[in-house]
Amino acid sequence: MVSIFRPSDFHVHLREGPILNHSLNENLKHFQRILIMPNLSNPITNSKILLNYRNQIEEIGSNQMDILFTVYLNDDWSIKDLENSYQNNLFFAAKLYPKNATTNSTSGVGDIRKLSKHFEILEKNSIPLCLHGETIAPFDDPFEREKIFLNKELVWIQNNFPNIKITLEHITTKDAVDYVKENKNIGATITVHHLLENTNSFLGDLLKPELFCKPLIKNRSHQLSLQKAALSGNKKFFFGSDSAPHLSKKKFNSQCCAGVYSSKYGVSNLIEFFSSNNKLKVLDKFLSINGNGHYSLDFNKKKITYKKIKNFKFVSKTRCNQDYLIHYNHYNAFWLLNK
Ligand code: DOR
Ligand code: ZN
Fold first, then answer.
1. CB 132 near ligand 1, within 6 Å
2. What is the tens place of the pLDDT at every residue in 186-232?
3. How far is the CA of 13 from the centre of ligand 1 (A)?
4. Which domain holds residue 317?
5. In the predicted model, what is the mean pLDDT of residues 10-21?
6. What are the start-end ranges of the H helices in 154-309?
7. Residues 6+ apart with CB under 8 A from 214
8. Is 163 exposed, middle or buried (0-12, 13-18, 19+ CB in 10 A)?
9. How far is the CA of 268 from the centre of ligand 1 (A)?
10. What is the pTM of this model?
11. How many domains does the chain have?
12. Beta-carbon contacts of residue 190 (< 8 Å; ≥ 6 apart)
């Protein structure tokens, strides 16, 4: 039996339409708080779209779970609308996508220096900035994108706007771990799949579309750096699943979409990982304490318990809109929440 605080996931894609129904209900089973991403097919770039998305979610219902919204930072946001929306508590953090870095990022930012006015609003209002930390340039190696971003863009943001609280999302490299450790006003999320997979499991044998995500999964030595950071309990590192459902027909075709849907088995995988490393006493830090601390949020300290079930049979997909969503699960084991 394992006893933990009900987890928080600080990076989730709930999507829209039929997928939203599934992903929201799945998240309700596991989390007390989630921070949700704004890269909808029509990205959240003004208060009208934001309100519409809030209503869609409210209609389904969110029970006891605290849902924190992000907005999609780009030039389309009028400064006034951005500031008013924040002051009216319509969103919690701003997300920056480099142009063409990932799913629905064609409206992302080409040159971050052109967003200075928006960064000023973030700094003035203490709005957290969540970064997809990759530089997209035609001749750079996709495996190097995160590392290049650190020196090229992140240093610039931190030098010019030192008071913005930054979250470097879904980090994948030792370079990112070191950067976050060495600098002020910055924390990082780590996903389950980047913790538990590496280039061998992703493409060392047959290519696994279900592990294709951005940033790309890196080699074993980067994986070990992420594991060390998560298991250390260092308050700068916390859970953000980047759970990103796509319909199966969009994963298994000639142009595979980036994204790993991990909400169903994510917590179970983390319990198994921390437990097999004899670090269960650090799990609450990674799953609840550090992330909420980073964002200065209080959270429910009531403990819940999980037990490992015998004869686990992995259900790899869920029916959705005449298609399927593919679940990610690393271990042949399952930790079930005691009701
Ligand atoms: O793999 C990813 N999928 N990475 C992201 O940054 C976005 C996400 C998505 O929205 O599908
Ligand atoms: Zn994401």
1. yes
2. 999 999 999 999 999 999 999 999 999 999 999 999 999 999 999 99
3. 8
4. 2-337
5. 98
6. 155-160, 174-182, 192-196, 199, 220-232, 248-251, 266-276, 283-284, 290-294
7. 101, 102, 103, 132, 134, 258
8. exposed
9. 21
10. 0.98
11. 1
12. 170, 171, 226, 229, 230, 237, 238, 239, 240, 286
pLDDT tens by residue, 237-296: 999 999 999 999 999 999 999 999 999 999 999 999 999 999 999 999 999 999 999 999
CB-based contacts of 20, cutoff 8 Å, min separation 6: 14, 56, 57, 60
Q: Which atom of ligand 1 is nearest to the CA of 97?
A: 6
Among all chains, which residue has been given the structure tokens 């690393």? 330
In the structure, what pLDDT confidence band is assigned to residue 102 with cuts at 50, 70 and 90? very high
Q: In the chain, what's the furthest Cα-to-Cα distance?
A: 56
Q: How far apart are CA 178 and CA 297, in angstroms?
A: 25
The answer to whether 39 and 13 have CB atoms below 8 angstroms apart is: yes
Ligand 1: does its nearest atom lie under 6 Å from the Cβ of 13? yes
CATH number at residue 238: 3.20.20.140
* CB of 259 shorter than 6 A to ligand 1: yes
Say yes or no: CB of residue 258 within 6 Å of ligand 1. Answer: yes
Q: What residues are labeled active site? A: 242
- Is residue 264 within 6 Å of ligand 1 at its C-beta? no
CB atoms within 5 A of ion ligand 2 belong to 242
Buried b (16+ CB within 10 A) or exposed e, 282-308: bbbbbbbbbbbbbbeeebeeeebebee
* Cβ atoms within 10 Å of 316's Cβ, excluding its own: 14
Residue 11 CA to ligand 2 centre (angstroms)? 6
